[in-house]
Amino acid sequence: MVTSRKGAGGKTAAAKKKAGAAGPDLVQLLTPEGDLVEHPDYSIDLSPEEYRGLYRDMVLVRRIDAEGTALQRQGELGLWAPLLGQEAAQVGSGRAQTAEDYAFPTYREHGVAWCRDVDPVNLLGMFRGVNNGGWDPNEKNFHLYTIVIGSQTLHATGYAMGMQRDGREAAVIAYFGDGASSQGDVNEAFVFASVNNAPVVFFCQNNQWAISEPNERQFRVPLYQRAAGFGFPGVRVDGNDVLACLAVTRAALEHSRSGNGPILVEAFTYRMGAHTTTDDPTRYRSSEELEEWKAKDPIMRMRSFLEKNKYADEAFFTEVDTEADTVAADIRARCVALPDPKPISIFDHVYAEPHPLMDEERAEYGAYWESFEGAH
Amino acid sequence: MAESTTKTQQISLSKGLNLGLRRALEDDPKVLLMGEDIGKLGGVFRVTDGLQKDFGEARVIDTPLAESGIVGTAVGLALAGYRPVVEIQFDGFVYPAFDQIVTQVAKMRARALGKVSMPIVIRIPFGGGIGAVEHHSESPEAYFAMTAGLRVVAASNPVEAYWMIQQAIASDDPVVFFEPKRRYWDKAELDPTATPYPLYASRVVRQGTDATVVAYGPMVKTCLEAAKAAEEEGRSLEVIDLRTLSPLDLEPVFASVRKTGRLITVHEASVFMGMGAEIAAKVTEKCFYSLEAPVLRVGAPHTPYPPSRVEEEFLPDLDRVLDAVDRAFAF
Question: Among 3.40.50.2300, 3.30.230.10, 3.40.50.970, 3.50.50.60, what is the CATH number of A2-336?
């Protein structure tokens, strides 16, 4: 995969138009109609197979997400946070990372998790209520989902300070949303990253809505411009354009990896679904707005691009859809088979070292629970 | 090993912490210190004096003035394999970091089912008695003690401070480490070659037979003075330095109460919902038939910390402790 800032190398013959409609402050490489456009600072030139790979990722991720929603509706999950509409931002930024980079997600980064090869069933545990995370963050360099808004941006910054001290050739990517930009922790993370020159990419998916509150309730200057006040660059990318998200995030990670400090990427996208399965977006936003964004759908534009350039045929699209159903069925089967934890296990991992109160209460509650017929 | 860590010497509590931190920095390259003004200034109480000069800016980090940021980045450093020791400048300034401590530091290990640990020490100077302005004299220990996943300890004298800070740093669990602000300049003789007392254990610091007094941090000295005064009045008080507030180590307290039949708990924090309440409940449960009187609690009234001109009346002192002892004998 080749992405670079400045100067495109023409590896494939896909037709390129001059930049235009997206506007000067929005990096776009693929229009909603599926046409490549040029940008003065960013370019992308992939093989047909790589283009197909990005399409496949997005379709699979959307299908996994739909399965999450279905599982919640059927009572198998207590809650689900859909990513519908944000596939390009997550797959583009996810595929930009190397295995050595480290990602700190919110609770909606199912697409990033997919790209980092995290088993999707791991993500379901907390939504099903069988654990509060539970996977080993260091296995795929993908931290546990963080629910309290914005906290993980500080963890990401601290982790980056650790990488810096260890001289690791890697960067951290911290995910957060437009709503989180109001949190003190996010702004403190900007300060700490800036003064420490920490190798961290702040990747904000501006999906326009913090539950029911639109952008104008959170900020009055475009988010990416905020970075300037903290002393590092900011760039806004079309978050529904997987190619631009890939190119911009790869450049951003390289920027941080190379000792240039933090950078803010604002992926301008749209949450087409609800905030979570408990939410009803019809109470606060118009169907016209949703329709407008549907026309910019990240998957449709990639499909148009593949078709226009004859990078994929009908058989490929059918094959991806079939694979998506297979993946979803597998996840469903493994989700419903997830065992409930034993009540006594709540004492197991609170402390690393022996703790008398844990021992005392484990014995006390354990005996009480065991006193019932048919106890675990 | 440097002479400063082998030679018997007269030290202040601040110096004890300084030597303990120095030794931890020497022993483990993963130990980092982070906080406001801890570098060139050496911290407002000089606890980190000279450490940045000797260990460099990458290990003794002057942070931006943002407590949540300090603790939040410490979480990330811990995830990356470091052992951060965070200084909160004053007790009343820990609250901006409260979310990171309670929500992230305390729960991370359980959330990860033990696959990660949080070996972070959060040092907090606490308590009053120094004539400070508002927000510089508080006793927030119970907030942290009631949070599962944290350990909470309080040092009471220079020698304890030297050993306990090293033990806290060596612990794989997060430790909130309370330092008795008004005792920073108390002096004692330190033998750095001695064997330290275990961190998570309370300790009888004065033997007695008539009543038991439990305290921690700055109140241990007050209670020892009270015991001395009581002796002149013919009463023998046993004084226990609690040392660890979470987990609590109450076996020595139970043993003492079974002997004396009377217990008084003493802390600067408010009596209402203070550490004394938990101790009283446990002692009542475990030593019910040994008690000659109800457990009495000495502490602060349920008001904000007052302006410093009235802190002398507000804070428990020798007389308040002896008054409680009298009341315990009046039952």
Answer: 3.40.50.970
